[in-house]
Amino acid sequence: MMLLYVFLLFLVRQGNGSFPTEWKNELESSLHFIVNNNELSGTYTSGVGHANGKYPLTGYISSDSKVLSWAILWKNGIEDSDSITAWTCIRYKENVIVCMWTETQKSPAFWNATKVGQDWFKSTSPYLTTLK
Questions:
Q1: Which of 29, 65, 75, 122 is spaced 20 to 30 A from 95 at the CA atom?
Q2: CA–CA separation, 37 vs 3, rounded Å?
Q3: What is the C-alpha end-to-end distance of the chain, expressed in Å?
Q4: CB–CB of 59/75 below 8 Å?
């Protein structure tokens, strides 16, 4: 099993289009990606705020799996916060992605409707999906 894990890490380091499917950020939010060609789908579970449950995500990933972006409408049948967040990221190392995000929410005051921040995500499993 250890040999398989080392081999999978080797594939990711080679940048051959393999991409881990499970990620977690510094605030304990988690991502599960499904990759179909250059399209991303999956779920996001927030580790902060009032975002209960899993939220569907949709986005895109480059063919070499080095650049990716996704968005979430914060509505899932449990919560509806009238907001959308979009992440634009670069795969910094084989198991780290660094992202800038913007969140826009319904607000009576225009000046505070959009927030901007940064996240980093680390792969939490050796499970890979291969880009076609």
A1: 75
A2: 28
A3: 26
A4: no
